[in-house]
Amino acid sequence: MGNKQAVFTHEQLEAYQDCTFFTRKEIMRLFYRYQDLAPQLVPLDYTSCPDVKVPYELIGSMPELKDNPFRQRIAQVFSEDGDGHMTLDNFLDMFSVMSEMAPRDLKAYYAFKIYDFNNDDYICAWDLEQTVTKLTRGELSAEEVSLICEKVLDEADGDHDGRLSLEDFQNMILRAPDFLR
Ligand SMILES: [Ca+2]
Ligand SMILES: [Ca+2]
After folding, report:
1. How far is the CA of 168 from the centre of ligand 2 (A)?
2. Which of 22, 57, 117, 155 fits 26 for a cystine, CB–CB 3.0-4.6 Å?
3. For the chain, where are the alpha helices, taking DSSP H only?
4. Could you say which ligand is closest to the alpha carbon of residue 162?
5. What distance lies between CA 49 and its chain's CA centroid?
6. Is-contact 78 88, C-beta < 8 A?
7. Which residue(s) pair with 86 in the sheet?
8. Which residue intervals define the domain EF-hand in the entry (predicted)?
9. Ligand 1: centre distance to CA 162 (Å)
């Protein structure tokens, strides 16, 4: 045990603790889960910051994500190139925001990004339709979905421009926190 090679330098671990809501122990546990997803890809030595990404197909199969209808969007939003393939940093960020320790504002900010399917910084009627369809797991008819979208837009579109800005969305979350789940 004594001269076992460390996965991270002391500084790296400090930095991860500063950037996430995790303790050193939780970071190590997540690292080993990340490593375990693709052992042939992810080295056990990160001290030289290897340029590694785990493919979305593996990330999306994790128990925390596999039943989430937004898993692909979540992975896209947290991956640095938007393709869902994740570096260790992306991976730790994602779990940090999903953790119970993350404040509601931060969760709302990422939920907004996840629901903004076309990445234009607004949730428009089309984004909302995708969101409601996924939230209800495709159990509603197209008519029911558009009724809900109309109602949400009606109630949440504070400046009446026909789409939700981050601010509109944050105000909506205050009234209906269910949207964060
Ligand atoms: Ca959008
Ligand atoms: Ca608006």
Report:
1. 6
2. 22
3. 10-19, 24-37, 56-59, 71-78, 88-98, 104-115, 125-135, 142-156, 166-175
4. 2
5. 23
6. no
7. 54
8. 144-179
9. 12
Mean predicted confidence (pLDDT) in 76-97: 97
CA–CA separation, 63 and 44 (whole Å): 23
Task: Give Cα 175 distance to the centre of its chain.
Answer: 22
> How far does the centroid of ligand 2 lie from the alpha carbon of residue 59, in Å?
34
Question: What's phi and psi for 50, nearest 5 deg?
Answer: -65, 145
Token duo for residue 22: 């995790």
From CA 166, how far away is CA 106, in angstroms rounded? 12
Cα three-residue angle 84-129-56, rounded to 5 degrees: 10
* 175 pLDDT above the threshold of 50: yes
Q: How far is the CA of 125 from the centre of ligand 1 (A)?
A: 8
Report the distance separating Cα 79 and Cα 83, nearest Å.
Answer: 6
CA distance between the termini of the chain:
42
